[in-house]
Amino acid sequence: MITDVRASKMFLLLDEGESVAQIARRLKMGEKTVCKYRDADQLPSQIELPPRNYRTRKDPLEVFWSEVEELLERDSQIKPYAILGWLKRKHNTGDETRVKDSIRRTLERRVQQWKLERGVQQDVKFSQVHHAGDIIAFDFVVMNSLKIKIGRRPFDHMMFHAVFTYSNWEDVHVCHSESFEALCRGLQDSLHRAGGVPVRVRSDSLSAAVNNLSSDKEFATQYRDLLDHYGLQGHRINVRKPHENGDVESSHGHWKDALDQELRLRGSRDFDCPDDYLTFVRQLIKDRNASREKRFREEVPALNPLPAQRRINYTSLSVTVKSDSIIRVKRNVYSVDSKYIGLTFQVRIHQDHLELWYQNQCVERMPRLFGCSKEAIDFRHVIDSLVRKPGAFLNYKYVHYMYPTTRFRMAYDQLLKSTTEASAVKQYLKLLHTAKHEGA
Fold it and tell me: Which residue in 69, 73, 74, 281 is deepest, having the highest Cβ count within 10 Å?
């Protein structure tokens, strides 16, 4: 079928008196085609063609369609890509490939037609009107796909990402987990950089803000206290409905893409230290917010004033050091110096580290473990006792932490080859003792 443009040229040439054969050669058309549109005196788009009631190729879904229909009858919201994956798992066995990826578009059209014929109702996305000073929305976004490095080592991290929904002014905060401490610092940083407090704050049902074990999913006490401190009304979206927090969800992709492009322009994803990376990130946020400055200036007067002081960014709990010189914090295990056995500390859990406070003094500071069932055991905390009780070494629960480097492990293995096991243990423990007290 020719286009309207070529047909118009054909009519012009006919008016100029050229023959059908000449026009066909000039426009590279068949003579029958020229005669067809000349006799109809209409452009191709003006001619109504009868609907085609035949197939031009074999139906690739003919064998599988009854199974697909059965799935759709059971749940009409199953998406075509999921159906395709299910068909491939079911019918592609061994070397036989009966279902190919090339049928995906056909499947999408057929599923869409099936839904139309049966009147399946779709979810409607309702466009929202945003008001100045009304909502700040936040969520955490994992950044590991960007492959950032600090000192040539992979830097696994997340970002607390906040967006004012009226102006799209945004802010980010680098963190390592979706902890309340990261939420508390990130939200407060965003509010203080913005210079005011909106009416509401919106998030998903992350465990740092919502007690997901309760039937009505009420806000966690810590989070509720934080909102009260700033006079914020908390609002959470429904579970598995990320589009309800679409302002920040859609911004995640734009932010990651913008950061990726800046890293490409920089020519390297490796930074000397976390502060250098944070400076790089803050400059990019500043540049992105520059285009929103006019609308943000409209929003600032509608914001409520900030409280006189920030709320503390840490969580406190009391922990007593047991006889094994171990403390357990947030389902993770940390060793402490044996001189603290029997003492009760106030542990201040910050975003990236723990502080041990005793009698209003910070006596220890250690990196925080993320996740659960993790261990941070330092041989220097227990070696003074272990060297006096060498028989406890071999079956010690955390014995693998008694080899601080591969060289220490090699030294122990060499001792085993040259003497008895008991003697090797005693000599190795003396080596660790020397390493602690003489810095060897």
Answer: 281
